[in-house]
Amino acid sequence: MAAKDAARRLPIGSRIGILGGGQLGRMLAVAAGRLGMEVEIFEPASEPCAAQVATRVTRASYEDVGALRDFAARIDVATYEFENVPIGAVRVLGDLVPVRPGMRALEVSQDRIIEKDFLSGIGLATAPYVAIDDFGDLTAALGRIGAPAILKTRRFGYDGKGQTRLSDADEAPAAWETLGETPSVLEGFVAFEREISVIAARGMDGQVVAFDPGENRHEDGILRATTIPAAIPNGLAQDAVLLAGRILNALDYVGVIGVELFVTPSGLVVNEIAPRVHNSGHWTQDACLIDQFEQHVRAICGWPLGDGSRHSDAVMTNLLGEEVYAVEEMTGAAVHVYGKGTARPGRKMGHFTRLSPRG
Amino acid sequence: MAAKDAARRLPIGSRIGILGGGQLGRMLAVAAGRLGMEVEIFEPASEPCAAQVATRVTRASYEDVGALRDFAARIDVATYEFENVPIGAVRVLGDLVPVRPGMRALEVSQDRIIEKDFLSGIGLATAPYVAIDDFGDLTAALGRIGAPAILKTRRFGYDGKGQTRLSDADEAPAAWETLGETPSVLEGFVAFEREISVIAARGMDGQVVAFDPGENRHEDGILRATTIPAAIPNGLAQDAVLLAGRILNALDYVGVIGVELFVTPSGLVVNEIAPRVHNSGHWTQDACLIDQFEQHVRAICGWPLGDGSRHSDAVMTNLLGEEVYAVEEMTGAAVHVYGKGTARPGRKMGHFTRLSPRG
């Protein structure tokens, strides 16, 4: 139990601490401000883009216990914008202030084996998977799962980083070397028709709500666009939402979660979960009364969750690298620029959303 | 001509200076951030609520020429959130950096006589009005205009402040004393059916766009609620938009303007204009693809104006004083809390907007 009272609803004017100062922290800060909250960003890197719209920023290492304690003393609740936040930092904060979502969500989402064991354990389908600790495990696993397959590091993967695809068992030595001979998971290839995701939220009172599932298109492992609604039958959309709710309840979760799913001929397969606001939920900013960022802030502050129904259909497109400069000419889209310094190739610099009347 | 090139389009990452750190500056800052701009607030008062979401804040007096010059050196364009910004401060900035909207808009809107002369001069209807410099003027004007009438200070009025109503000519001495025996204007009472407002914008290239007119309800001189669409015939709504465009063009205006209008049996009468984003345009945040705040930022940065069409009907309601705490229970409205310190009675602390499908 945290030192500060974990059960009370945080009133207007409370102070939210966010670990991580990227675009998700930035958009969380804006939503928190809309609810009258003050925001402090904790970020080791210089000039985090979230700091431009936050009340305060602490620039310190996640290993700096003193800085973490000072940060905790200035805030009423802590959250994070990325699942790879160091567990040690969360433990330091957690002794002093509520951290939401909690430790269990981080443990599950930081390790692909623990995540898949958790999902299987609550009866959800995942890709076939085998834990790989050495090269012998990999060749044995390829014998069981077959090729094509995907080798992923157990930890710290994102946006297609930390993974490589094997078309054939012959590629095992190269793949093992590519990933750095590190604890990994071999996943069987799922022959999916489409990729969808559900952005759902769970409040401190256990209330669960979800935004309508969106359909995702990836390029080179990076989300390119999300279309709402996904072109799936209503029954399948409902299944996706129920499945997300099962995950939230099993984790006794507080906040917003992103659940990536494959649609296959035999039903939904969970690809991965992200214990945070999610890129595929950015469309909610412009097509819903209350968006994923505000829903997250509401949840972690103990407020009732808001009405996330959508008033419009939408297509959200990411702007990578220098693509961001195109927004200066756009007049028919809602544009969101992240204020990052250098438009490196592939870097998420912004996104834009086009609306159309709800179909 | 300003020292910095006034004609170029400001790219992503440019720096916008805002005179005034209240809720309008705050919501401008959020919109500017969404376009990838950095924002610096200039505000004499301590802890301006806009600073919570801005990159930087200068706390200094509008008479502090050194602070104004330093501020100008750090920004690419300046704007303001209130029409009563001291002209001297704007002159200091204007020598160093573009200030948008320009000086003419401020001169017109800071003085009710100049404003009404300007409006009459471009053929628009206003309430009958007479300039009052001494008590003799007032009694003479009451003889011409009759009662009921409204006595308003020429300068520095807002939210019903600086004005008093005369039901009868006998009330002239008390009214003259109430306003502080200061240069004023006596306005004839307009028998209006409803009050509407148009929020319009003009770009650096002369392009004019307008949001759909909203219908306003005031209480005690303070805006209580705005309903969109206003319950007026389409032709009248078009007249209102054209009239706003005439004002913008006549002022060679750059930015967003709020035009308050009375609907009367004989047509539209201009109540007043505000050379800034306007409370009655807050509904655009939640019911339009691009809102009044972003439209203003687009205009002053030389970007093409965005699509401000509305996807939903809306009712925006102001939260005054302690009413703001009600948002902690609201789940079916988009809430906007301003982060101000003390919830004094009548103080604008936030607003909320409810949407309904476009009728």
From TrEMBL, chains A, B:
Residue sites binding ATP per the record: 112, 152, 157-163, 187-190, 195, 218, 271-272
GO biological process: 'de novo' IMP biosynthetic process
SUPFAM superfamilies: Glutathione synthetase ATP-binding domain-like, PreATP-grasp domain, Rudiment single hybrid motif
Gene Ontology terms for molecular function: 5-(carboxyamino)imidazole ribonucleotide synthase activity; ATP binding; metal ion binding; phosphoribosylaminoimidazole carboxylase activity
Record's subunit section: Homodimer.
HAMAP family registered for this protein in UniProt: PurK
This protein's UniProt keywords: ATP-binding, Ligase, Nucleotide-binding, Purine biosynthesis
NCBIfam families tied to this protein: PRK06019.1-2, PRK06019.1-5, purK
Gene giving rise to this polypeptide: purK
Annotated metabolic or biological route of this protein: Purine metabolism; IMP biosynthesis via de novo pathway; 5-amino-1-(5-phospho-D-ribosyl)imidazole-4-carboxylate from 5-amino-1-(5-phospho-D-ribosyl)imidazole (N5-CAIR route): step 1/2
Designated name of the protein: N5-carboxyaminoimidazole ribonucleotide synthase
PANTHER family reported in the protein's UniProt record: PHOSPHORIBOSYLAMINOIMIDAZOLE CARBOXYLASE (PTHR11609:SF5), PURINE BIOSYNTHESIS PROTEIN 6/7, PUR6/7 (PTHR11609)
Family, as annotated: Belongs to the PurK/PurT family.
